[in-house]
Amino acid sequence: MDEPIDAKFDTIHDAAVREPGTGVLRPRHAATLIIVRTDAAKPRLLMGRRAGGHAFMPDKWVFPGGRVDRGDYRAPAASELSPETVARLTHQPRHPSPAALARALALAAVRETFEETGLLLAKAAPSRPGAGPWRPFLAQGALPDLAALAFVARAITPPYRTRRFDARFFMAPAESLLSLERQPDCGELDEIAWVDFDEALALDLPNITRFVVGEIGQRLKDSSRPAPFMRFLNGARNLTYV
Fold it and tell me: Thinking of the domain 28-241, which architecture would CATH place it in?
């Protein structure tokens, strides 16, 4: 297996560090979605720049994503995750209902992508009443397309951070978007762009994002590649594969 382009997936300078003597935070479940577009000479990734006022990684370029909400456990979908994706997501779950968490993570990735970029990863489905963050899907006669998602990485924020996430990274083809046209009144990121791999690596990226960009490049060559799991154990970086 090829080595990742940068194994330093979270360095001390990437974001704010907690004050000495304060308690270590428990990581919150979160999900990120990498949408890959292949309709040009080079593959392109959807990325966005975080606002300068953010307390966590301001001005950095990232993939859309965020923490799991309660509603993600109950949201409807037009299709479900593949058995292989569920199996990878439920590896070392430490959760009373790992399958339910896996589905909620996938839905969180789709929802956060819509909220941050205005793009719907969805397919046509019977209309039904709904409210909250899923209303834009339902209003267009569409529901999240979970079958389009592949699980590609997991990373737990180091214990020295002021905010911590147990993040799962998903990948999906741009063809699974309802449209390449963004929905109005959406977009929490300062700027949105489709960038090829060279352009992505030239941006101001957190190290974890830089790591995942390299991983996606390798996964496009070998879709069977196991997913890296990045975390800290006994004060040291630990990289294994699922």
Answer: Alpha-Beta Complex (3.90)
